[in-house]
Amino acid sequence: MPRIEKIIPISDFRKDAAGIxxxxxDSREPYVITRRxxxxxxxxxxxxxxxxxxxxxxxRLLAQGEADIAAxxxxxxEDVLAEAKAIIDKL
Length: 91
Description:
The chain is an alpha+beta fold. Helix content is 62%, strand content 16%. The chain has helices spanning 10-15, 17-27, 46-70, 77-90; strands at residues 6-9, 31-35, 38-43. Strands 1-2-3 form a three-stranded mixed β-sheet. The longest helix is centred in the middle third of the chain and has 25 residues, at 46-70. The N and C termini lie far apart (49 Å). The model has no long low-confidence stretch (mean pLDDT 92).
């Protein structure tokens, strides 16, 4: 996990939110916002956040697929391909 170097107290964020957002967009490095000296939130660029959420959803689906396979749920690849071929042949 990468180390986050940009740490800023909430009071500094309140004073210069627009400037911090500008620097965030330029550097693409997340900021840790602290409250009373402790990490309270992480500020990231929106497209980075969306990409992370997309990646997490893919990982969730992969994990679910692995669990389904381990539990014996699912279909044999040959059966799926045969059904797909039959559907395509009808077109």
